[in-house]
Design goal:
- It is a single chain.
- With 291 residues, this protein is an alpha+beta fold.
- 44% of the residues lie in helices and 6% in strands.
- Helix 4 packs parallel to helix 6.
Length: 291
């Protein structure tokens, strides 16, 4: 880039031409709904409106883990939100999440429905409601919450930073990729050092901190995000790899990854989930075979 090509910010920013990139059609500088559309409601206590991005996977993994413990009160309906089509800007979705981001959830288990948005809030809400996957002693609890909020604060540098400029931006910019690759690798080093003498993020017990961090960083080192495993040399983070593979082997995690997934191999896509039997009968490979 020459000096003549340098961008000079205006005194007041306004939206000009489309900024390009994979998600340019859904980016805008204002909030609120773009159209009227009510959300469907199923029969279970929890109604989830989501897509199997890392943030969505956190919550479906948690729900499947709770059900695996025999906690029937965690039964849920999962409805697919196609963010590329702008479903998150429908009036019903915005009522549940005014930030128009997936996932969004309604807890209908009590006398009045309660909305929950932000994936970290959902994990904490479910953990406290059912007394599972969060330590009960004060020191363990705050350690778990510290790592949960570490993920919430750190992952935007991985996704909106590194992922955007490495995989989605219309042009490859060395400065941007280098800046966020450096930060992503620093974060992986934080995890690798922490997991050197621990089975899970908070010690011997699997928790919501693991679910939250695995959805982003575990899937990154397993080669599922941004086709960047080799570029980031993820194999060098041996403790993170061991931890990621152990969580990936859990049956509830394998089920949770499929829910609201609309991309990838057909046998990994369960667009909607309303019953445990849906995993056996309603993945896209089975639906297309029946058709």
């Amino acid at each position: 880039m020459t000096d003549a090509d340098q961008y000079v910010p205006p005194k007041v920013w306004t939206l000009g031409s489309a900024n390009g990139g994979q998600f340019a059609n859904i980016n805008r500088p204002i909030a609120g709904p773009t159209h009227d559309k009510e959300l469907p409601v199923g029969t279970h206590p929890f109604q989830l409106y989501s897509l199997a991005t890392p943030n969505g996977v956190k919550v479906t993994v948690m729900l499947e883990e709770l059900l695996a413990l025999g906690i029937t009160g965690a039964e849920y309906d999962a409805w697919l939100i196609r963010i590329g089509d702008g479903d998150q800007f429908g009036s019903g979705f915005v009522e549940v999440n005014p930030n128009s981001k997936i996932p969004a959830m309604m807890d209908r288990s009590g006398p009045e429905p309660v909305r929950v948005f932000e994936s970290g809030a959902m994990l904490l809400h479910l953990a406290e409601k059912f007394g599972a996957f969060i330590p009960t002693d004060p020191a363990g609890r705050i350690e778990c919450l510290s790592w949960l909020f570490w993920q919430m604060g750190s992952a935007p540098y991985l996704g909106g930073g590194f992922g955007h400029f490495y995989a989605y931006a219309p042009t490859k910019m060395e400065y941007c990729i280098d800046r966020f690759a450096m930060e992503t690798k620093r974060q992986l080093d934080v995890l690798d050092r922490h997991l050197a003498d621990k089975a899970f993020m908070c010690g011997d017990d699997y928790s919501i901190a693991d679910m939250a961090i695995w959805a982003w960083y575990g899937q990154l080192v397993l080669g599922r995000l941004y086709s960047a495993a080799e570029f980031l040399d993820v194999a060098s983070y041996a403790h993170v790899m061991r931890w990621a593979e152990a969580i990936d082997a859990r049956p509830a995690v394998q089920r949770g990854r499929k829910v609201n997934r609309s991309f990838g191999e057909l046998d990994t896509q369960l667009h909607e989930r309303h019953d445990a039997s849906d995993f056996d009968t309603k993945t896209q490979d089975k639906i297309q075979a029946a058709e």
